[in-house]
Amino acid sequence: MLTGYIDGLGLVFQLGTLLAIAGGTFLGIIMGVLPGLTSAMAIALLLPVTFGMPPVMGIGMLLGTLCGAGASGSIPAILLNIPGTPSSVATTFDGFPMAQKGEAGRALGLAIVASFFGGVASMVVLSLLAPPIAEFALRFGAAEYFSLSIFGLVIIASVAGKSLLKGLIAGLIGFFCSTIGTDPIAGVDRFTFGQLSLLTGINLLPALIGLFAVSQVLKDAFEYDPSNKLQNSPHKVDIARPRFIETLRNWRALLVGIVSGSVVGPVPGAGGSIASLVAYDQARRFSKTPEKFGKGHGAGIVSVESANNALLGGALIPTLALGIPGEAATAVLLGGLMIQGVTPGPMLFESQSGIIYGIFLAYLVANFFMLIIMCLGIKLFVRVLLVPRKQLISAIIVFCFIGVYGVDGDVFNLYIMLAFGLLGYFLNRYGFGTAPVILGLILGPIAESNLRRGLQTFGGDWTPFFTRPISVTFLVIACGLLALTLWQNYRTRQQDAAPDAA
Amino acid sequence: MKKLALSLSVATAMMASAGAFAEYPEQNIDMIVPFSAGGGNDTFVRALQPLLEEKLDTNLVIRNISGGGGAVGLTRAQASDSDGYTLAAASNALLTLEALGNVDFTYEDFDFVAKILEEPYVIAVGEDSEYADLDAMVEAAKEGTSVQVGVSGVGSSAHIAAVAFADTAEVDFNFIPYPGGSETISAAMGGHVDAVVLGGAELRSALESGRLKALGMSYAERSESLPDVPTFQEEGYNLSLTVWRGIAGPDGLPEEAKEAWVNAIKEIVDEGSFEETASNLGLDIVPLYGDELEAFIAESAEVMKDSAGDLAAK
Known about the structure:
The complex is a heterodimer of chains A (502) and B (314).
Chain A: H1 2-12, H2 15-33, H3 39-50, H4 55-72, H5 74-80, H6 89-100, H7 104-138, H8 142-159, H9 164-178, E1 181-182, E2 189-190, H10 204-223, H11 229-232, H12 244-249, H13 251-264, H14 271-286, H15 298-322, H16 328-339, H17 346-350, H18 355-382, H19 389-408, H20 412-429, H21 435-457, H22 464-467, H23 469-501
Antiparallel strand pairs in A: 1-2
Helix pairs in contact in A: 1-18, 2-3, 2-4, 2-18, 3-4, 3-16, 4-7, 4-15, 4-16, 4-18, 5-6, 5-7, 6-7, 6-15, 7-13, 7-15, 7-18, 8-9, 8-14, 8-21, 8-23, 9-21, 10-19, 10-20, 10-21, 13-14, 13-15, 14-15
Chain B: H1 2-22, E1 29-33, H2 40-56, E2 60-64, H3 71-79, E3 86-91, H4 92-99, E4 110-119, E5 121-126, H5 134-142, E6 148-152, H6 157-169, E7 174-178, H7 181-189, E8 195-199, H8 200-208, E9 212-217, E10 243-250, H9 255-271, H10 275-281, E11 284-289, H11 290-313
Parallel strand pairs in B: 1-2, 1-3, 6-7, 6-8
Antiparallel strand pairs in B: 3-10, 4-10, 4-11, 5-8, 5-9
Helix pairs in contact in B: 2-9, 4-11, 6-11
């Protein structure tokens, strides 16, 4: 193993390879910042460039892109309340309030350092434990996926804001929207009204951008008052620098983030989008000051961002150890690996070529480049807030259109974005919140298709959902958390009521 | 003045002579990939992109227009001008979409330029499976055991191929659709389904690592990429199908455009510069052009239609 790492070092520490990783990271950061442009797209664009390169150089470049995009998604989430990907939805919960308080620099500083720690930790997990974790992920069958999604749904209670009922309603709206499209098991069209673009259902990205970005723009536009000078003046901005010490002081949140990202991330198809939400939810439960979450609390950002980059390492586990990519970005990466002649699988870890160690080290190096580039850029990023609101929202809406059109080159996605923008505006206005809708959209298909797939495999018998160990564990935890939430809600209400009575 | 006139005439002559054998392409060519980045169609086009750009001496602009399992992108490609500047990465999906009645086009609305790559459909089982060969699996199903067969995507070409196999073997399998190839493979590795039907390329790493073992594949003859796997026909099931990938455009493409593409692809195939990439991806280079290609497409469309009819009836 040691000789493997020495060989790997030789492969990574060459000028060309380092430059390729740095270039990939830089491109990833840019793609992550722009709403709608995803790391999957960035990697696909780079694929042809990497063909001529030696494996570690080419793969290092792609890993850099993955790492950069994973970290920089926090920037629009914090500054503008626009999560570029589902996994940075939870970054907006505390990041945006912090930016509004004039602490955008602090929020970004925390996010960058937490991303870095998350990425490095996941690399360590990846290099030491990839094969056993991959085996564990394989034990997820239909029943386990279903229970995992139920576990995820409990988080709705956590992100629901003030009213649990309104949060659930918003979650159900998301759930309903997820039933649009071809039925995942029977293949029948549902609610498509003959619209080809709806056959594969509502695309997550346009919905996400609509719910968060467009709704925010609408709100700003409706509330805009030309006579109000304060509104048109730029935001306050604090000193922007990386916050190492404050991140480490939030060690609980950091640890929760890393663990959630590394454990939930490797589950193919489900992990990517919910790992960061799980992290946020758990960080709040483990926190001594849960009431501060959602109002601009550093621990919230640390938990989400460390989970975000830890889950990238997590998602690489089944990709490298089994050749099973968890989501789009690792799927494109897998294509890149295969073209390079690197066949993923247990053999990759046993082979003597040093390539796998080169890949680990390249990912580690990519995290350092990410840290350096983001630290250099942080002062530039916060300047976005110095742009007057009026100009800023016009620029945002342009980027939304470009990004969403770019996803599939399908104009219909723009209509979806606008529809969800309107929906989001009203949901926010009447206190329902938009995060539960996204959760419903993400978890709905996982819950539905796996329930039905499970019933089909078990021949109509529903007991395996409660007898399979992993499945029942998730269900029990979900019930426990739900009970805890209800009890806590009851307590706070009583505490609120008590002073009035006295 | 004279000099200018001379250089002008020389220039015109050069342009004319260049035009005589290479008018097409004069501008960038849009290549619609009807799936999102990372799918089999996307990877194959991107792998060919640098080689094609060199041979055609123009830029290929790859546009991922996904949605509707390829329906949106292919509909767009079919409706675009047939000037040879908008082409699409075509595959079996084009035929299955038609067979399932999800789209307004038929394969006859397309002009097929070339078929480049093929891979077999492979039936594979987990490493500890009780089924040693196809017969054992078919026997079990005949005796009433519910044999769970995972397929990638409801109504996908692999799903239809799986139905076609079940029809040929005259048995019913319990088909379990998964959203994509990777979910299907992980279900088989984890023992959540008994078998899977997938394209050979997707299964490549799982088969190489021994986590899954192939029982049979759908080529008419054994393939170089899977030399130890018997064909369905060897095992006594009269069915041969292939997953193919190629280039198509809207009906009525100009002859010179088709010719330029066919020549470019022929050169790439002859030079062998694509061979290693293809074999790394688990694909076989089996080029086909012109009339033979048309006959091949028509035949595949027929098989797909029959099986899709059965799928819809169930």
